[in-house]
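Slide 14.
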Amino acid sequence: MIQLSEDHYELLLEPLKQVDFNTLFIRSVIAGHTGGKVFVDSMRNPTSFYAVHSYGMSLLFGNANNDRFNSDLYNYFNQKNETRNRDEWLQAHPRAWDTLLESIVNAGRATRYNRLNFRFDKDEFEKSNSLLSFENYTVVPTTASMFSSIKGSVTPRVFWRDEQQFSGKASFTAMVDGEPASTAFTSYRHDEMLEIGIETEEKYRGRGLARAVCVKLINYCIENNLKPMWSCCLENAASTNLAKKLGFQETVCMPYYHIPA
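Slide 15: predicted structure.
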């Protein structure tokens, strides 16, 4: 595999259009909103692509039948060439990549899960949430100063390089006892699409805070002609159930591979 320099990330844009599910996380790497790495089979005329977001999400796309590239990937995922230092969550398109990925599962180096993509239904959202009261919540726009204080694993600081870059992005936070308790934020924003990231501190879960802040962010999307996006692991029942309460409907379910460090 050849690591592609950031100066050539635009080479991914056209091949990425062939992927039939949500790829906003890789578009954020290409745009420089976050860190990441991209590997290809050729610098001059790449046809096979492996892109990794700094958070650990990754994508295989393009030509799945490149034996040399696939061999390098297999060795890399099995820690034979160099040490991988973090967990990874890998998706692939087309499904021809499954042969390689299942071989990694069979080698005991990966576990297969399922990834859900959703489609937003505005009518369902309004029917289910139009009467939601905010009287019991203190929901405020998330400030840049909250960037580092929001606790959890799905937070703005793992999707944006710094608080300056995050500043001005649509985000809402529920405050409890003077501290951020739940935040719905822009994890990715490209063209008219805005993907929602959501995190609630563990001690504040079960109070309806996540739904409240997400409703605020979705209303922002509607008011600004943006398309809210949602995707999550099928096995994440809390995220799946919240998505459905917010008017999202399942569209695509695909294999999703956890490859530990």
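Speaker note: The first helix runs from residue 13 to 16.
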